[in-house]
User: What shape does this take?
Amino acid sequence: MRKLLQRLAAIAALACVAAVPAFAQGEARAYPEKPVRIIVPFPPGATMDFVVRLIAQNLSEQWGKSVVVENRTGGAGVIGTDAGAKAPADGYTILAVANSFAANPTLRNDLPYNTDKDFAPITLIGSTPLVLVAHQSLPVANLAGLVDMAKQQPGTVPYGAAVGASPHMAMAWFESAAKVKLLFAPYRGQSQAQADLLAGQIKLVFGNLPDVLPQVRAGKLKALGISTARRSPLAPEIPTLAEQGYPGPEWDSWYGFLAPAGTPPEVISKFAEAVHAVLFKPETKAKLAGVGIVPVADTPAEFATFLRTTRENYAKIIKSANIHVE
Assistant: This one.
């Protein structure tokens, strides 16, 4: 009798173990059963906010459940990112991230979260190229003129960027490639830097193509070079940095989704698949192309690799350029 009871207990235990993944798969099939929140750790109105809200609207229609975008700003994305890290790992809080997520671990030693352990990658949404633009009052006609001016007046031409953001990385790289020294003016966000550029308070910015192109075509800014290997079909008149003698990384602003660590893989896969379906809808692709976004829609594993290599590349630039947070 004892042996029979032991066998029955063992069978019951195995049945319980087998039921766990089945239960998790059942949860994934039902997901989402309630509203989903996407945290954007930057202010509304920028390209990232537009992209995430476009995706959220489509996911709401696809699922028949609300997908709410919440802007949690501050600390170059740290405050919102921390909120995402500490959210329940159930798939109902998703974090949108950009370049600063990969730069902050090198820039800061006081992060309230662990970049490597507190997040589960979902997918890279896409990217948009950066354009080096100058205020009309800057007396240069092209990139060569800027380099000549910066060499003759080292440390006097002011540029603005959010500390650790992609425009900051790109300008640090350009200074090294051109062997010039510019004057860095730190900003809390890139939109503030671009506002001051338009006002003439600073003279240079690396800006997202969709953000600066209308001002260039209105004659308020001068486009000196785009960061892609080839000219953009959205702005074929803007020469690349490479064709002007400065080949190097294709600097861009990229956007992706993370979940809190511990979120069931089945839920992560379902969210990723839903986002991929949205990104490649003809109407969504057209709207993204209109603001210069090229969809990527990779797998969680591919996004994890992208984040790791990007973080390593940023760390080299930050250290070589001696970039630090004040």
About this structure: The radius of gyration is 23 Å. The first strand starts at residue 36 and ends at 40.
